Amino acid sequence: MKLAILGDIHGNLPALQVAYDITKELKPETIYHLGDLGGYAPFVNEVVDFLIEHKIEGVQGNYDESVVFDKENCGCKYEDHFQAEMAHLSFEWTKKHVTEKSKNYMKNLPFQISFEVEGRRVKIFHATPTKNNLYWYEERPDNFFFLMTEKAQADLMIYGHTHIPYFKKLNGKYFINAGSVGKPKDKDPRTCLCLIDISRSNVQVTFIRRQYDIKSVIRAIIKSGLPYYFAEKLIKGE
Ligand SMILES: [Fe+2]
Fold first, then answer.
1. Residue 52: which of 37, 74, 71 has the closest Cα?
2. How far is the CA of 82 from the centre of ligand 1 (A)?
């Protein structure tokens, strides 16, 4: 069974369109998104409409939850004071521009999605099986992976949040960070689509990277009044 995963889209409609076009070529059985639909780029409502129109199910991210419940911040981590200030501007912008329809959609997203494929228990969530704002990097010690496996009670875990893709196999369990469609942070600014092929004997994971019209997003960022800082980050893949 082939699954396609759209990680952290973050208001980047042109990137989403290109990532979705890849699925038309690869023809997976199902496509899921990992939440964090708005923030940093201005197309939050268009992204929600796209997901509804194409019947793409997914989970709730920390950004979605924070927008819906009008929290004071997005629950993201910041490296310095300036980054915190920028993140705050993006969060306030998103809360101000998100429609009731989008809010309603985000509000009703589940925390996780579980199913079984070829005898393997699959679990999809935004960041970790217990918290949607914890950063699960590949460099975490093995013990962290074991603990998360215990919490998830799954054989195959699919998540995002860090915007840095990886695939790791440990003690017969599979850990897949799908990366980010709309705001990659691995220094590769191209959009990222994650394809997972699950069979009884094997699990194959491919990260497909493709260029999209980043200039159109930059123009939209400028026009929207969001800080240019986010355009620079997109260009650098940060
Ligand atoms: Fe995110």
1. 37
2. 18
Map tokens 């990886």 to a residue: 166
Distance between Cα 181 and ligand 1 center (Å): 10
Dist. CA 63 → ligand 1 center (Å): 7
Burial 136-151 (b: 16+ CB within 10 A, else e): beeeeeeeebeebbee
Q: How far apart are the first and last CA of the chain?
A: 32
**How many domains does the structure of the chain reveal?**
1
Cα of 222 from ligand 1 centre, angstroms: 21
Which strands make up the sheet holding 191-198, listed edge to edge?
Answer: 57-58, 30-33, 2-6, 191-198, 203-210
Q: Give me ligand 1 centre to Cα 197, in Å.
A: 24
**Residue 201 CA, ligand 1 centroid: distance in Å:** 32
In single-letter form, the type of residue at position 42 comes to P
| Cα 231 to middle of ligand 1, angstroms | 16
What's the pLDDT score for residue 46?
A: 98
The domain spanning residue 110 has which CATH number? 3.60.21.10
- Ligand 1 centroid, distance to 173 Cα (angstroms): 24
CA angle 101, 98, 114 (to 5 degrees): 60
Residue whose token pair is 């699950």: 198
Q: How many CB atoms lie within 10 A of CB 29?
A: 10
For the cut 90, the answer to whether the pLDDT of residue 78 exceeds it is no
Residue 119 CA to ligand 1 centre (angstroms): 30
Residue numbers of the domain that contains 149: 2-236
Band (51; pLDDT cuts 50, 70, 90): very high
